[in-house]
Amino acid sequence: MKPFKSKDFRPDEEVEDLYGPPEMFGLPDERTDESDDAAPEFIDEEQERLRQLRDTQVQLAYGPPVTMTPDLLKDQEVQPVYGPPEWFSNTPDGFFSTAPEIPPVLRGDAMNGMTVPGFDRLMKCYHQLRAKTDFVPKVALVLGSGLGGFADEEVDITCTVDYSEIEGFPRSTVLGHRGRFVFGFVGDVPVVVMQGRVHYYEGYSMTDVVMPARLMSMLGAEVLFLTNASGGINADFSAGDFMLIKDHISTFVPNPLIGQNMEQLGTRFPDMSRIYSEELNGIIRSTASELNISLKEGVYVQLTGPSFESPAEIRMLRGLGADAVGMSTAVEAIAANHAGMKICGISCVANLACGMTDNPLTHAEVQECADKAAPKFKALIGGAIRKMGKIGG
Ligand code: HPA
User: Fold this and answer.
1) 6 is a catalytic site residue
2) Which helix (H) or strand (E) holds 227?
3) Are residues 61 and 206 part of one domain?
4) Reported pTM
5) 244 C-alpha to center of ligand 1: Å?
6) I need a labelling partner for 344 at 20 to 30 A (CA). Which of 21, 78, 235, 278 fits?
């Protein structure tokens, strides 16, 4: 068996072994013709590791910490992350660990060479979603602040699924982010729309933050259309402008691909030389020009937030070549690119970045400006998606 590549990955196929064959890990293949299973010594190592875990406190991919019992250890589905007890002391019951003293990369992600529980959880979320709908979208759209109304007004809705209906799926906690998938049609293009996204600053690991993008790719979406509200850094920008995202800087946030690579989705070291598709950019440009909507272009930089930047940070970001700053998008684009999707993004410049005006920044101001720009933004996005039906063939 060859390692899965995103293009031939079919989530509905039985996956032979979450750990994969030895060659996936660069190990010599010591299997004989009689044995279809993974190399025996690999299993032995795994069982030995699980034996050592028995009776220790572990943090599962989600939920409160549990004590490993022989029964749990027998369960192939359990992919524990372990650590000293103090990591788990503050863990809220019932959902993801968000204890601030646990470094995000150690929560639900790979550590000490262990398997990525994120993939197991992704599959579970996928199967739960598939049990609710067999809809196959072509375009996946992520709606940023102020844009939630697009899904209600512009999409001919087939069905909706609240994030809270999917066990193990991260929930959006930001005011104004509704928290559901909307399936339906824009023109004749089948779409899945995220009405509300999750952000790193909400306390989720980056694996959780990018899970929705991966899930939408597994549902069949070929295109990921990202939208957001941002602060304008480029001195030529004004509040209310739209910026086509030509490239991004993600260096200030953890890379979402950190941890054991999900071979089923994509390669370990994915190329990022053309993250945002020129073909899709061309569609957005022509739509903007037909609708008489002025469109800026530039580089988006993602910071963690939730605090806005300082004036000195904005000067630094401008020096680095950024045109707009925000708290989302770049990591989703990285994960989607890893999974082989075509990506495009438009940012609504909701305010001029800190230090560029005398006014202090508030979320209310960002929301207000995004709301004002929403009708034009919706027309642009809707018009562009209508043209995306022919992408890929
Ligand atoms: N900074 C970061 N994120 C933002 C901003 C900003 O000025 N405006 C909207 N999102």
Assistant:
1) no
2) strand 223-232
3) no
4) 0.74
5) 16
6) 235
Work out the number of other CB atoms within 10 angstroms of the CB of residue 2: 10
Residue nearest to atom 2 of ligand 1 (CA): 326
In the block, residue with structure tokens 């495009």: 344
Q: Each residue of 165-189: pLDDT tens digit?
A: 999 898 877 665 678 999 999 999 9
Asked whether 349 lines ligand 1 (CB < 6 A), one says no
Measured from the CB, is residue 361 less than 6 Å from ligand 1? yes
Residue 254 resides in a domain: yes
Ligand 1 center–CA 351 separation, angstroms = 7
Q: Which of 79, 186, 197, 76 is nearest to 148 (CA)?
A: 197
Q: Which of 201, 255, 313, 368 does the annotation list as catalytic? A: 201
Q: Is ligand 1 within 6 A of the CB of residue 215?
A: no
Element (H, E) at 124: helix 117-132
Residues 362/160, Cβ–Cβ less than 8 Å:
no
Read off the tokens for 207. 């694996």
Determine, yes or no, domain membership for 107: no
Is residue 96 scored above 60 in pLDDT?
A: no
Range of the domain at 331: 119-388
